[in-house]
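Support request, please re-run this one:
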Amino acid sequence: MEKCNVKPAEGRLGILVVGNGAVATTFMTGVLMARKGLTKPVGAMTQYDKIRVGKGEAKKYLKYEDIVPLARLDDIEFGCWDVYPQNAYQAAVYAEVLKQKDIDPVREELEAIVPMKAAFDKNFAKRLDGDNVKQCATRWDMVEQLREDIRGFKAAKGCSRMVVLWAASTEIYVPVCKEVHYSLANLEAAMKADDREHVAPSMCYAYAALAEGCPFIMGAPNTTVDIPAMWEMAEKTRMPIAGKDFKTGQTLVKSGFAPIIGTRCLGLDGWFSTNILGNRDGLVLDVPENFRTKEVSKLSTLETILKADEQPDLYSDYYHKVRINYYPPRNDNKESWDNIDIRGWMGYPMQIKINFLCRDSILAAPVCLDLCLLSDLAARAGRYGTQRFLSFFLKSPMHDYTQGEEAVNHLYRQHTMLKNAIREMGGYEPDEEID
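Re-run finished. Output below.
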């Protein structure tokens, strides 16, 4: 083993979450409960997964924390922004994801997490009506106010490092505009000119985070950091960025199951995916412009795993459809159905049905923890720009589309990328190949 050259995780790690809804409060409550020994952080790779390091007689299987210096749960300080003023305890109760008995033991800590005023533009999420909102003259003013919030929180909580995580609603679809989004100078000019069409509020959060030396994670399918201007900003500030959209339910199944079809060389005629959910995310996604943002991210998964150009006999003409329906009775308990029409020997048809009754925030919370801890790790390891090794946790992984690069959506290849990065940062050989 070579010497691990990652800076130690000294001091407190501030995690500022954009959004104080179901995902954010489930994440925060779980971490606070786990560090009191009152629950287990089930689903968090950073807390459970083991990686092989070394080969032959030198082979060992170690947890991440035994390979690289990860921040401890005890060192985390939470803060947030939200359009609604309720504190994290009130928001957790309102979300109805967790039972009261799983929230009350950390009530005082949650009540102390009071959301800062959000940088918000109702045109990007028409269904949200909160009044805990900043008054911003321009998008640049929005950035400056957010930077002030980050500095203020860091000082007040005595944090040595910070991470900013977007766990808020999906914004309306913002198509990539070369004139604005392809250079940092043009994006900054658009912010100063208050270009509200091309500069979403989420871009102001991302810019502010990077400017203040914080890694930024995009947990929704928003365009936000998936533009060359933000890649340039991440390079300039030498900060990690990751995105986009937490991979929790249906897409996790898709990225894990599609390789079965491909590896077994079965044909595919069609894959129909539909979802019902009733939380605030479902309410926002009920608006066609917001659903379009989500649809783009969910559709991209299959096409990069089952490729027509590699196997034209099997994948040249399949039909892929994704639907999301707002259904209030389910609240956070999302249900997804996948109907998969496949072809076997001599073209004979078969079907696979997958019905996943998942809890959206219960699946998202450990992903939030992993992304925050690993982004902080990447920053201390001197990694900056798009963190492709975090693709495992993301529905529509970022990639340089300007150079024709294709995202890796195959779950097992993503896991290999993750393991190799941990090995490398820990001073071991990144010795697994990705076919």
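The chain has a mean pLDDT of 94. The longest strand covers residues 267-277.
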